[in-house]
Design a protein that fits this description.
The chain has four helices and eleven strands. The chain is an alpha+beta fold. A hairpin with an 8-residue loop joins strand 8 and strand 9.
Length: 239
């Protein structure tokens, strides 16, 4: 995809964090190193419950005075509420900018200020945040190709594949997708994530599957192998 092979991703929204404490505030909450985020270098991370269960995923990029979060649009207001809960006296403000800004994907570097190579896997190409008037139109064919690639690679897609309040990060392959920094120090939910990783306690993960009998089952459907429960269906595409 060059510019003509770019597409709006309608399910994504944008939140900004401003204020002198924006970096330290978010650093203490999410699973990855916020300090590594740059204008054209994103950090992929998740916000967890204090017990270490998944709540929200995000891509984080930074400008001189602002952190930009590429998030699930339908989760944006809930994420804002959670951030405000932990704000206390921190010098940080949060704004849902999803009406003004959106997210697009492209196979090659689109050369935008807030463009970045997908930090999860290089095969996933590039993403960029821009004012909605400057974003490409939604292209269903490109989105379908991208979704097929995502599923083939076993890449989770936020709350479509992770159950908020129940799933743990390693079940969604965040450790394989550069979504966890195991050396950054404390963050909310860090204890369970680290213990599961270092003690190899993970009992289930997302895996790509292919249906041999027509369309894939609906999300949430129990899957069986030789009469025994083998897993639960999450997101899918076509047959």
């Amino acid at each position: 995809m060059n510019e003509t092979r770019s597409t709006l991703v309608p399910e994504r929204g944008v939140i900004t964090l401003a204020g002198n404490d924006r970096l330290s505030f978010l650093q203490g909450l999410v699973s990855n190193d916020v300090l590594a985020a740059k204008e054209r270098q994103a950090v992929y991370a998740a916000l967890l419950t204090p017990q270490g269960k998944f709540l929200f995923e995000m891509f984080i990029v930074a400008t001189a005075d602002t952190l930009w979060l590429d998030v699930e649009a339908q989760q944006a207001e809930a994420l804002l509420g959670k951030l405000n809960k932990y704000k206390l006296r921190s010098d940080v403000t949060f704004t849902n900018r999803s009406q003004e800004f959106g997210v697009a994907i492209a196979e090659d570097d689109p050369g935008r200020p807030l463009s970045f190579s997908d930090p999860r896997l290089p095969e996933l190409g590039w993403r960029f945040i821009a004012p909605r008037a400057q974003l490409p139109a939604e292209n269903a064919a490109i989105l379908a190709d991208y979704e097929a690639l995502r599923l083939q690679l076993g890449v989770s897609n936020g709350s479509r594949d992770m159950v908020p309040g129940e799933s743990i990060l390693l079940e969604g392959n965040f450790d394989y997708l550069n979504g966890v920094d195991f050396s950054k120090g404390c963050y909310m939910g860090q204890e369970l994530t680290a213990r599961t990783h270092y003690r190899a306690l993970i009992k289930k993960r997302l895996y790509p599957v292919k249906s041999a009998h027509g369309p894939c089952p609906e999300p949430g459907t129990l899957l069986y192998h030789n009469g025994q429960e083998a897993g639960v269906m999450r997101s899918s595409l076509g047959a």
